[in-house]
Write a structure and sequence with these properties.
The chain is an alpha/beta fold and about 575 residues long. The protein has a domain at about 105-220 and about 385-450: 3-Layer(bba) Sandwich (FAD/NAD(P)-binding domain). Helices cover about 45% and strands about 20% of the residues. The chain is built from 17 helices and 25 strands. A 5-stranded parallel β-sheet has the order 5-2-1-9-21, with no helix packed on it. Helix 1 (about 5-20) runs antiparallel to helix 3 and helix 5 runs parallel beside helix 14. The protein is flat. The chain starts with 5 loop residues before the first helix and ends in a 7-residue tail after the last helix.
């Protein structure tokens, strides 16, 4: 019998003993002593009211695990918020900077693009008197510029004021918002001018330099095709994105004007993108998203006439990607009703149509007219005038056509103490933001090592004099040991490896919340495309944004456009 059932069994036995048979119950009960009767009654009463004890199984401690996980999550959230908050406070409250040291060399950096800003980011400005010259006082995160053309992201979210950045360097950096008109290599001066709308008494001057880094980038190439610059829109600067945004809405509103002819409506709503690289593909995808998500909701009259066409002279789009991703992109564009015209070369551009030469099914070349409302030219780079002028000054650059030819240390051939980075330099690499950023970072490390070399050599000179004036052998030996140590440091510092580009992969957004990625993976490449790749594309670009401010603003813009839609008003 189970132990917890014993009280009930004892109670039953006592109850039977206490309950006499009907015939003799009265006699048996009254024959017992009174105290025995009372004790028996009390025992029966206690045992009959006793509750049996049931064994309770111990509960599993799952609640404790979830409770601690929740606490750690809250702690991590608070810590992350504190870290971001401190970063914002630090950004808003820069420390005082020491003034320039006249005894140090003057390093002039032209431009505020990927190469120049990557250089400034890692450069120890205490080693030089640094001067930055650029017509724009901000850094632009160009990979997200196509998103600005349709309002997915506001343009100021991908702009970082250059002065905010320079104020956080160890030593002060001079910045001049000006256009570099000419580099006089012989006199070692740069002629600059203030091209802003408001000019002071002095709006042209010269800036001398000891060391020069040219990072002015490139301008849009039209390949000598008539009408491109007059009628087409480019996609390289913030102003370009704003003009495209206004032109899209102009075409839509004009197409809905009263009594507009159907042929004219089709022309106005035909958006043509020339260039099948990442910029052209991303813009075409963003434009089709804009139409599918917003334009046809608010302007339903244009639903049947809106069309996007991508024109590319090569046999396929995204030539730097793998064949698998090229096919996936073309298939996705077909699903999105974006027309791809490969092997099509633009010959002339007028106000209302494009003359293009394409190869027909029979292999013959066909010249046709393509009407358009918006033309975006997203292909080719050309030299800026200041770079052309410098090339003409250097005999060693006589054969340079695409930019300043540089050696493996990014030194401009035929020049001394002049370097070039980014799209204005020819270093046997593709003119991409990734290449320019790595060139700038490498150049900063080299400049820091050069400054350290100069510092060590100065100390060696001082120790050499100290050894000559040492009073005894013990003092001379002590100085000699210091000289040997510094010589070891000098040998290490002088070992500067030439620049070598490391490809980190290629990304492109193709519309409909899909992206493609071609990423190096061990000895091969990892090619992927789809919605998951789209989230990777977003996270990669957010992490690559210049500052915490940019990252927060970009994420807020994405949420805002998803919840409220893109703005269809015209500014």
């Amino acid at each position: 019998m189970a132990p917890n059932m014993r009280p009930f069994a004892a109670a039953n036995i006592l109850a039977k003993l206490a309950r006499p048979s009907p015939a003799s119950s009265r006699a048996q009960w009254t024959s017992r002593p009174v105290f025995q009767q009372m004790a028996l009654r009390q025992s029966i009463r206690q045992q009959s009211t006793e509750v049996p004890k049931v064994a309770v199984k111990p509960k599993k401690k799952r609640a404790g695990f979830f409770r601690w996980t929740w606490r750690l999550s809250k702690l991590a959230a608070v810590g992350g918020a504190g870290y971001v908050g401190y970063g914002i406070w630090e950004m808003r409250n820069p420390d005082d900077q020491p003034p320039p040291d006249p005894s140090k060399k003057t390093l002039v950096i032209l431009g505020t693009g990927w190469g120049a800003v990557s250089l400034l980011k890692k450069l120890d400005t205490e080693n030089y008197n640094v001067i930055v010259i650029s017509p724009r006082n901000y850094f632009l995160f160009t990979p997200l510029l196509p998103s600005c053309t349709v309002g997915t992201i506001e343009h100021r979210s991908i702009m970082e004021p250059i002065r905010n950045f320079l104020r956080h360097k160890k030593a002060s950096v001079k910045f001049y918002e000006a256009e570099a008109n000419k580099i006089d290599y012989e006199k070692r001066v740069i002629h600059i001018s203030d091209d802003s709308d408001i000019k002071g008494d002095v709006h042209k001057t010269e800036v001398p330099f000891d060391m020069l880094v040219v990072g002015v980038g490139a301008e849009n190439a039209t390949f000598g095709i008539p009408g491109v610059r007059e009628h087409g829109l480019f996609l390289k600067e913030v102003g370009d994105a704003q003009r495209i945004r206004n032109r899209i809405m102009d075409c839509c509103e004009t197409a809905t004007f009263k009594d507009q002819h159907p042929d004219e409506i089709k022309r106005l709503l035909h958006m043509v993108v020339v260039g099948g690289g990442p910029t052209g593909v991303e813009f075409a995808g963003e434009l089709q998203d804009f139409f599918n998500s917003d334009l046809k909701k608010w302007i339903p009259d244009i639903t049947d006439s809106f069309k996007v066409t991508l024109v590319e002279a090569l046999p396929n789009v995204l030539p730097m990607f793998s064949k698998q991703l090229i096919d996936y992109t073309e298939k996705t564009f077909k699903e999105e009703t974006i027309t791809i015209r490969t092997k099509t070369m633009v010959k002339r551009v007028t106000e209302k149509f494009i003359e293009a030469e394409s190869v027909g099914p029979d292999g013959k070349k066909v010249l046709e007219k393509i009407p358009y409302g918006l033309l975006v030219w997203a292909t080719g780079n050309a030299l800026r005038p200041v770079v052309k002028d410098l090339i003409n000054q250097l005999p060693a650059q006589a054969d340079s056509r695409r930019g300043l030819a540089v050696n493996e240390y990014l030194v401009v051939k035929g020049a001394e103490n002049v370097w070039a980075v980014g799209d204005c330099a020819v270093a046997n690499y593709a003119p991409t933001a990734q290449v320019a950023a790595q060139e700038g970072a490498w150049l900063a490390r080299m400049f820091n090592q050069m400054a350290k070399t100069t510092e060590v050599q100065a100390k060696l000179g001082e120790l050499s004099l100290a050894q000559e004036k040492a009073p005894n052998k013990e003092a001379r030996d002590k100085v000699f040991d210091e000289i040997k140590d510094l010589q070891k440091v000098l040998r290490k510092v002088k070992q500067i490896n030439p620049f070598e580009y490391t490809h980190n992969g290629s990304l492109a957004y193709i519309g409909s919340d899909k992206a493609v990625a071609d990423i190096p993976w061990f000895v091969g490449n990892f090619a992927t495309g789809g919605t998951l790749t789209y989230f990777f594309w977003r996270s990669a670009y957010v992490s690559m944004c210049f500052s915490t401010r940019n990252r927060i603003l970009v994420c807020v813009d994405w949420v805002k456009s998803k919840v409220f839609g893109r703005d269809v008003s015209r500014v």
